[in-house]
């Protein structure tokens, strides 16, 4: 009891001495701790076991950083009022959004959040430039304001365009596929440059408005021509930009913590972007400036994705497909965006469970860029309780296809196109694909014979071992479940297999 | 204002740290990692807060700061929660 008492008094006296420290020192100490936690958080996010904990750690770090700053700044009553207003609005919206959004809409949600981060940097730089001027900072202050404005605006407008394209609200206009777009974008970039140069002498006037307008348009101009197949790369890159914008805002307001965190996110985003480009066998330059994949492809050769260009299509009913599944020993599912659209992940999981109960070995082949975002399929399948050991990466599963009895392709297209290996005239040529054509039997579940997201015909559909099962992925999977149960799958085996 | 040389060092070391921290990432985690890093980039809240406190009684600055705080916090809160939702779904066989 006495020790407890002395401990309490020790604690209160140390708290007292902490209060007597200048707020600057306390704030600095908290800053250091939060940078450490932030770094540990990012590191942990890259490992499956620690990822969730690490995410919490990063959130804690951010909370600490805010606390440390508030201790340093000691806002007055007016400031508190405005802080409360902004926090309540943004925080509540974020809370509601995060809980409401379905897993299938994750890519566009991340794009939206990302754009808002860019907007925040833009607003800070705008406010400082217009109402505070460049005080004594000279060119450094001007440069950081310019970068914060420019990158913030590009992040914001670019992210919104990416979101709109993913939602299907926005198509790729034809003019953006001609060389005209380079002219427009170079023109906009020049206007940005003029605004940037003029800003240092007139921080509050027309150059500021010009810069904001031109860089917002530039963000639209560079994102709009990029085809849907490349959207994952774009989101990742924009994520990196938002880090750069945050770091620039750190220079604007003089916060080292902001600079570190922004730089870390910017660098990490670049790495992730690079990983994705490698997966698609494309260079970042060709993604950004090469236009939409397939849109510029010649009508002959690998191009021309309309139904008339297919000549040997075999379609079959779910019943036939179910019979093939019943006799299979090894089945691989290849999920794609169509699975996400049809919300069919739970039906798929149910089908796998049934097959596993029947003694069939089931796995899922995950192409690095299947879906609209890297890892999109993993998230989707995880939602349906698929254990992650069953999701197999491309490099590991490709050698297994020759020993696979049945492959079911669910709403994936370009990532299983064998032309990427065989046809040098195909725009996909060179992209690593899942070699499902090596399997004994392939069923492609698809709504129609329309081309993939990249707009390219798929030679897989015409192979002799391929059969098309037309229909919405969820409807087809439910049909398969019904057929398999009718065949007695799952019941008979349970007694026999033990 | 912070010392510019210092700030540039911080920028450089921070970037190098970022490159080092994410070396190998399993594809499973690409989306959550992107979304988590995205939430961290909402750390611009610090800049927004600074702007509000520095504003004094300039209403335009207060408004801009508050707006910017709203956008940044939307990014932070939404980002972390969405990431957590995604990661909560990853389990191994037999977990739960």
Low-pLDDT sequence parts of chain B: none
**Span between N and C termini of chain A?**
61 Å
Strand content of chain B: under 5%
Looking at how many chains there are and whether they match, the oligomeric state comes to: heterodimer
Order of helical and strand elements of chain B: HHHH
CATH topology of the largest domain in chain A: Rossmann fold
Number of helices of chain A: 19
Order of helices and strands of chain A: HHHHHHHHHHHHEHHEHEHEHEEHH
The span between the termini of chain B is 51 Å
CATH class of the largest domain in chain A: Alpha Beta
What shape does the CA trace of chain B take? Answer: flat
Query: What is the overall pLDDT average of chain A?
Result: 83
The SS-based structural class of chain A is alpha/beta
Q: CATH homologous superfamily of the largest domain in chain A, by name?
A: TPP-binding domain
Report the biggest beta sheet of chain A as strand number plus sense, adding barrel if it closes: 6 strands, parallel
Helix content of chain A: 55-70%
Which properties best describe this structure?
heterodimer; A: 498 residues; alpha/beta; 19 helices; 6 strands; 61% helix; globular; disordered C terminus; B: mainly alpha; 4 helices; flat
């Amino acid at each position: 009891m006495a020790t407890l008492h002395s401990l309490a008094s020790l604690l209160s006296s140390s708290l007292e001495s902490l209060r007597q420290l200048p707020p600057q020192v306390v704030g600095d100490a908290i800053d250091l701790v939060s940078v450490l936690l932030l770094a540990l958080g990012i590191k942990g996010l890259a490992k499956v076991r620690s990822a969730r904990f690490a995410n919490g750690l990063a959130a804690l770090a951010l909370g600490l950083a805010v606390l440390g700053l508030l201790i340093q700044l000691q806002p007055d009553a007016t400031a508190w009022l405005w802080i409360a207003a902004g926090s309540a609005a943004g925080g509540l919206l974020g809370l509601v959004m995060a809980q409401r959004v379905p897993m299938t809409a994750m890519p566009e949600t991340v794009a939206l959040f990302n754009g808002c981060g860019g907007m925040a940097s833009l607003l800070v730089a705008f406010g400082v430039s217009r109402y505070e001027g460049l005080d004594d900072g000279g060119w450094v202050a001007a440069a950081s304001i310019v970068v914060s404005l420019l990158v913030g605006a590009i992040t914001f407008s670019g992210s919104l365009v990416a979101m709109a394209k993913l939602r299907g609200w926005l198509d790729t206009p034809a003019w953006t596929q001609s060389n005209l777009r380079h002219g427009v974008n170079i023109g906009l970039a020049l206007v940005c440059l003029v605004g940037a140069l003029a800003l240092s002498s007139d921080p509050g006037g027309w150059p500021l408005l010009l810069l904001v307008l031109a860089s917002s348009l530039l963000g639209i101009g560079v994102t709009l021509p990029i085809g849907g197949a490349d959207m994952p790369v774009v989101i990742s890159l924009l994520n990196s930009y938002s880090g750069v914008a945050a770091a620039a805002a750190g220079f604007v307001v003089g916060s080292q913590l902001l600079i570190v965190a922004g730089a870390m996110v910017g660098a990490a985003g670049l790495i992730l972007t690079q990983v994705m480009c490698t997966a698609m066998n494309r260079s970042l330059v060709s993604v950004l400036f090469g236009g939409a994949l397939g849109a510029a492809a010649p009508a002959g050769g690998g191009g021309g994705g309309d139904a008339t260009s297919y000549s040997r299509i075999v379609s079959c009913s779910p019943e036939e497909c179910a019979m093939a599944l019943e006799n299979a020993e090894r089945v691989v599912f290849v999920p794609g965006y169509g699975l996400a659209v049809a919300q069919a992940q739970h039906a798929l999981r149910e089908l796998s469970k049934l097959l596993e109960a029947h003694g069939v070995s089931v796995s899922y082949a995950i192409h690095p860029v299947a879906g609209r975002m890297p890892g999109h399929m993993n998230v989707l399948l995880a939602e349906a309780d698929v254990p992650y050991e069953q999701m197999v990466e491309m490099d590991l599963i490709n050698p297994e296809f020759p020993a696979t009895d049945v492959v079911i392709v669910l709403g994936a297209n370009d990532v299983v196109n064998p032309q990427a290996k065989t046809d040098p005239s195909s725009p996909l040529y060179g992209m690593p694909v899942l070699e499902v054509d090596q399997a004994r039997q392939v069923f492609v579940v698809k709504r129609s014979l329309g081309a993939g997201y990249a707009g390219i015909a798929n030679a897989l559909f015409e192979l002799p071992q391929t059969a098309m099962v037309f229909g919405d992925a969820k409807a087809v999977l439910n049909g398969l479940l019904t057929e398999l149960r009718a065949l007695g799958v799952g019941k008979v085996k349970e007694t026999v297999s033990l | 204002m912070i010392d510019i040389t210092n700030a540039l060092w911080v920028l450089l070391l921070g970037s190098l740290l970022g490159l080092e921290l994410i070396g190998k990432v399993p594809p499973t985690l690409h989306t959550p990692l992107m979304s988590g890093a995205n939430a961290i980039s909402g750390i611009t809240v610090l800049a927004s807060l600074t702007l509000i406190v520095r504003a004094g009684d300039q209403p335009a600055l207060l408004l801009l700061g508050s707006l910017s705080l709203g956008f940044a916090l939307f990014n932070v809160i939404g980002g972390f929660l969405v990431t957590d939702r995604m990661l909560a779904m990853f389990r191994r066989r037999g977990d739960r």
